[in-house]
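Rotation project, supervised by the postdoc (A.L.). Task for the rotation student: set up a whole-complex structure prediction and record inputs and outputs verbatim in this book. Inputs entered:
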Amino acid sequence: MKPFEQLVTDHGAMVLRVCRLLVGPGADAEDAWSETFLSALKAYPLLPLDANHEAWLATIARRKAIDLLRKRSRIPLPAEHLPERPSTLGIPGHNDDELRQAVAALPLRQREAVALHYLAGLPYAEAAELTGSSADAVRRAASDGIAKLRARYRVLQNSPEGALP
Amino acid sequence: MTSPSSPDLLPARTEGVRPALPEPLERLSIFEGALLEQLHGRLESAAREADLLDVAYTTIDSPLGPLLLAATSQGLVRVAFANEDHGVVLAALAAAVSPRILRAPERLAEATGQLEEYFAGHRRTFDLPLDRRLSKGFRLSVHRHLPLIPYGSTESYAQVAAAVGNPRAVRAVGSACATNPLPVVIPCHRVLRSDGSPGGYLGGPRAKAWLLGLEAAA
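Outputs recorded:
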């Protein structure tokens, strides 16, 4: 069995991209990353030797990200609080509002399809099994998601304030 | 002076065949490197708090080249020279101890500090908790005897064999030294052939000569 550090080295970036796409860049994505690897570390000694580490980590990341999204929608924040908790880790001065808005514009189904297929490299059929969908539906969701992300992103880049009306 | 060396001790990722990232997705990797380094630090502390960090390791630069240091919750469990191949040593630790292994230099801070002092000639004995689970049977008795050889002195393989109560086991003492999981800290370099020639060393003959020279100079 590989030392767990090897999984972090090999797949840490992929997991971060999946989390950023599912919950938007920022503190929530960072929390989802941390919870993914902590929970993977716990379960790792019992993982079958022939398991696909990348697919396994993407599966955990998706679950953690969805848990976070649910928690966020269930607990309405009091009005005096800021809607987004500032990142404790993020790069000062860096503003990922554009990406956040582009991601937020996608329905969760499309974000999942893009994350699992394009970022984690899962075949459509496997991504479908994971999300309780069909391979065709995942293929459509992934391609619609990419198209929408691209279109949205172009609008955002061309608008002088980097924000949509 | 020693300092933590590069974190990419383990082989870097080789990208497999996969769909190319369509243009807007590239944005998802923005400032990824610095953030991943911070997230790694956060994982180290979270794993430790949850009691899931079974083996912590780091690599330090030393006058004998990069050294791998690994510790369990009980103490220092492994020191390895570069010629042992640190990737292979970590894989062996995953099999012998636990695959829950993370690079976590903070857990090795005390060992790192004491080794730095030793290499600088400012320390003669190590005061570190040791996890001796990788030493078994006769080898364990040899490894327990070695720290009794004072700094700057040497014993022959035959003297060590006699000291552990098995005077005929001279060759077995040699192989116990060759499989010392904690070289430098457990001073197998202080064991020489009866004719005074240095004999083998797991860090190579030059490393042994360097250590004997360091201790003789003090």
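Student's summary: Chain B has two domains: 33-119, 137-217.
Supervisor addendum: The CA atoms of residues 157 and 173 of chain B lie 6 Å apart.
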